[in-house]
Specification:
This protein has 148 residues and is of the alpha+beta class. It has helices spanning 15-44, 52-64, 76-94, 122-126; strands at residues 4-12, 139-147.
Length: 148
């Protein structure tokens, strides 16, 4: 007999962590919208659509520009995931499975949320903390559910 086990985690961030998470979400929304504006401008100029790799190269440039230097504060992989979401939206559009991608408004959720990779050290892992250093330690509660 197989025993399936699942873990459910709930983050309980404090006020500073909530502000950081909103900041990260805003950064992801900004990158998504900037990539979408660029793709639309290229389409109107009869140029080819940029791929995800091309957009990631531009992301590096955006992070180093003086107007958008604040993007360096957000985790890179979260911004890259926003570009992956944009690429997937275009793939679905060209396959006629969805409408043309639209700009994201404040308060709207990006499909994959805010992905944050675990960059913790081994000592933090030993304590059971898997929060990235950029966010800090949030209180995480685990609930185990068993299915048979």
């Amino acid at each position: 007999m197989k025993r399936l086990q699942a873990f459910k985690f709930e983050l309980r961030p404090n006020g500073v962590q909530r502000r950081q998470m909103r900041w990260f979400a805003g950064s992801c929304r900004f990158v998504y919208n900037k990539g979408l504006a660029l793709q639309k401008a290229r389409f109107e100029a009869d140029e080819t659509k940029l791929t995800y790799a091309g957009l990631c190269k531009l992301l590096t440039k955006w992070r180093s520009e003086t107007e958008t230097r604040w993007l360096k504060d957000a985790p890179t992989h979260s911004l890259q995931q926003a570009l992956k979401d944009l690429e997937r939206a275009y793939i679905h559009f060209f396959a006629k499975r969805a409408a043309l991608p639209r700009f994201k408004k404040r308060g709207s959720t990006i499909v994959s949320g805010i992905p944050i990779r675990n960059r913790s050290s081994s000592s933090r892992r030993a304590r059971g903390c898997s929060c990235p250093s950029s966010v800090g330690c949030a209180t995480v509660t685990a609930a185990r559910s068993l299915a048979r």
